[in-house]
């Protein structure tokens, strides 16, 4: 057993070569028991995948690896029939995960396990999994049965289908998107629309893996595009840049955006998305899977998923998913609740025929311009004027992309998503007070998991001119003095007092009050 001693170690043990006798998804989901640490403790064998733009690692991997660990503690005659999961913290791809399995109950027909996924001692994910013993052929019960049917008019792709975008061809499973049903009909309400896809393991799952490997693979794939169901049904823009910014991107990126839009059933006409509401933050809260036919699951054959949302409101949404086998059998039903923030582009961004306001200016662009003209010298400052539009009800995305703030004592150990975490946790906990952020824990692992947030009991103004969100951001940044600001990979420190009062509008509305940032250079 070789332990990795690097500062950044995505696995506790040195990853072995991929087993050529197993599929890629089996290798990805492999967990190793750590008997030296105690009974029923496992760890990921391979590094975790962190999807681009996500707060943490892919949730389906943690779900499936928890299941894989729990499966190792029950007899092979017991197969999973349900698991109920909660996402507690964003997982880091730079840190090993330890899966602690507790044997809650072992009965004649059912066994129950709880699994905690931990990083650096903190529980990032927890699940309760129930297994059922397969009945012997001579002891099958009389039963009442029914099941939902595969929707009419859908047929699986061919076995040799190869229509994925180039960037999607290295993953452990294939996904064939289908246009969102009802998306183009304004008469069809979001709760009546459906998001659909076909999916399967990229390679054949080994016979040695047994039904357990197929079930873990299904659990892994069940989180694929599940979180984005509400935004797709409502037709929300989900990229980290606005539709108005797409024409300014390089040609290759523009083509990738259009391809991804088509791949997700959104259509390739980016112009049609201008002025629409945009997703500011999207986080999974929980995830449940009911496996109806465990023995019938063949994850390396095409499976059809039918996703919909019966309800969304108060910054949360509930989504459901039915997973059918190629033969039409209902294999599993999934549920998930997520929390999200949505903002509508300022009305000033759209003028006559959706033309962009001539006075508009990207905050990021302003910073880049200031850097290019050479104003960033050790003894000089960059002055950035951010105009505050009181009529704008947008979110906080633009500032998040520019201001990545951490205490100056931890310069070089910056967390590039502190402000995003600040707002995400604020939304989840419904804190109405400003938040002070402290970096705690392990210097060697400056990941987002080393940050805690605690509310300060400060009275919060509620007037339209100074909302609690605005006041909270202002206070939080001021409390972090001195601060380090990361812009395009360069680090800067705030000089003097910060005057922060932004409603995060990208548009320059000249009649409104202006606030300025002054940044001094840090060598």
Automatic annotation (TrEMBL):
GO terms for cellular component: peroxisomal matrix. InterPro entries: ACOT8-like_C, Acyl_CoA_thio, HotDog_dom_sf, TesB_ACOT8-like_N. Residues 157-338 form the Acyl-CoA thioesterase-like C-terminal domain. Residues 136-145 have a biased composition (Basic and acidic residues). GO terms for molecular function: fatty acyl-CoA hydrolase activity. GO terms for biological process: acyl-CoA metabolic process; fatty acid catabolic process. Residues 136-167 are annotated as: Disordered. Residues 47-132 form the Acyl-CoA thioesterase-like N-terminal HotDog domain. Keywords: Hydrolase. SUPFAM superfamilies: Thioesterase/thiol ester dehydrase-isomerase. Gene3D superfamilies: Hotdog Thioesterase. This is Palmitoyl hydrolase. It comes from Fusarium heterosporum.
């Amino acid at each position: 057993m070789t332990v990795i001693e690097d500062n950044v170690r995505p696995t506790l043990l040195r990853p072995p070569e991929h087993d050529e006798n197993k599929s890629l998804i089996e290798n990805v989901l492999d967990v190793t028991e750590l008997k030296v640490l105690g009974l029923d403790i496992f760890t990921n064998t391979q590094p975790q995948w962190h999807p681009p733009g996500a707060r943490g690692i892919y949730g389906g991997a943690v779900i499936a690896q928890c299941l894989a660990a729990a499966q190792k503690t029950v007899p092979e005659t017991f197969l999973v029939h349900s698991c109920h999961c909660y996402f507690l913290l964003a997982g880091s791809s730079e840190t090993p995960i330890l899966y602690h399995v507790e044997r809650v109950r072992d009965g004649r027909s059912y066994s129950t396990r709880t699994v905690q996924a931990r990083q650096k001692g903190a529980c990032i994910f927890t699940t309760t999994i129930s297994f059922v013993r397969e009945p012997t052929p001579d002891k099958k019960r009389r039963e009442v049965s029914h099941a939902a049917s595969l929707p009419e008019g859908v047929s699986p792709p061919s076995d040799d289908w190869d229509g994925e975008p180039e960037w999607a061809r290295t993953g452990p499973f294939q996904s064939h998107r289908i246009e969102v049903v009802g998306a183009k009909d304004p008469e069809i309400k979001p709760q009546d629309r459906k998001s659909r896809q076909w999916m399967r393991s990229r390679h054949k799952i080994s016979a040695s893996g047994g039904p357990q490997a197929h079930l873990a693979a299904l659990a892994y794939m069940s989180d694929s595009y599940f979180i984005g169901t509400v935004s797709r049904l409502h037709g929300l823009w989900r990229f980290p840049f606005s539709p108005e910014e797409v024409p300014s991107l390089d040609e290759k990126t523009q083509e990738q955006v259009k391809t991804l839009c088509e791949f997700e059933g959104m259509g390739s006409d980016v112009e049609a998305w201008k002025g629409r509401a945009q997703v500011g933050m999207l986080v999974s809260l929980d995830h449940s899977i009911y496996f109806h036919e465990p023995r019938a699951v063949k994850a390396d054959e095409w499976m059809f998923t039918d996703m919909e949302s019966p309800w969304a409101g108060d910054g949360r949404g509930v989504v459901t998913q039915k997973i059918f086998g190629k033969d039409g059998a209902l294999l599993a039903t999934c549920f998930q609740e997520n929390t999200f923030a949505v903002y509508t582009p300022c009305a000033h961004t759209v003028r006559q025929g959706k033309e962009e306001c001539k006075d508009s200016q990207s905050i990021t662009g302003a910073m880049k311009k200031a850097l290019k003209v050479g104003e960033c010298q050790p003894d000089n400052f960059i002055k950035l004027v951010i105009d505050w539009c009181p009529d704008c009800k947008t979110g906080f995305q633009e500032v998040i992309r520019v201001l990545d703030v951490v205490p100056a004592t931890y310069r070089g150990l910056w967390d590039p998503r502190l402000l995003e975490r600040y707002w995400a946790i604020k939304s989840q906990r419904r804190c109405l007070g400003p938040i002070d952020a402290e970096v705690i824990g392990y210097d060697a692992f400056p990941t987002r998991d080393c940050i805690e947030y605690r509310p300060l009991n400060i009275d919060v103004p509620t007037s339209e001119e100074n909302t609690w969100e605005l006041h909270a951001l202002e206070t939080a940044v001021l409390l972090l003095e001195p601060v380090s600001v990361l812009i395009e990979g360069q680090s800067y420190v705030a000089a003097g007092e910060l005057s922060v009062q932004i409603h995060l509008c990208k548009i320059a509305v000249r009649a409104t009050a202006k606030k300025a940032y002054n940044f001094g250079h840090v060598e």
